[in-house]
Here is the input.
Amino acid sequence: MQPRLLRSLPLLALLLASAAASSSARAAEYHCNGDGVSWTSSKPCPGTQRGEVRALGGGSATSPSYTPTYIPNLPKAPDYLPYMSVECAQLNDAIRTGPSRGLRAEPMAELQTDYRKRCSDDESAARRQFQEAEEDRKGQRQGAVAAVKAEKARATQNNEQCYEMLRILHGKRQRVASMNDGEKADLQRFEDNYKARCTR
Here is the structure.
């Protein structure tokens, strides 16, 4: 081996080591975030968050794309559910929550068929009971509103009558000096009636 080549071997080894270190330093770095927290990871981000990938040392790598898992919205429970039997209410819930639990089409169809066979009458009765209860509640609300209106009307009428009695009482007091004993007694009774009715 030529002496010049021998002298260049250490330099060559140093360059190879530097290249290997540089390659190692360019490992992928994932910038993740979720629940308001951000972090850096050497592994893909968990869940369905999209992780931005950068290579250390200024390089870049392809950003992985995650397809979010579709979860159907959970439908609202029917208003008549509390009026159903326990068994049918549970079947109704199982059908309502099936898609969000990942239930496939065939098991869902079986559940619906079973529900129709076993719970059609129960559901119809529950709907009727719910409607009757709603009508009762509506009647109670209307009755309460009517009672409030009637009370306000009575209070308004009483205030108007008291105002009129006070006007009459004021006029009679101005004539008390010319009244006989009977008229004075009438005035006293009128004043007592006013106080009992209007000054409580």
The chain is about 60% helix and 10% strand. Residues 18 and 24 are 10 Å apart (CA to CA). The chain has three domains: 27-32+39-69, 81-152, 157-198.
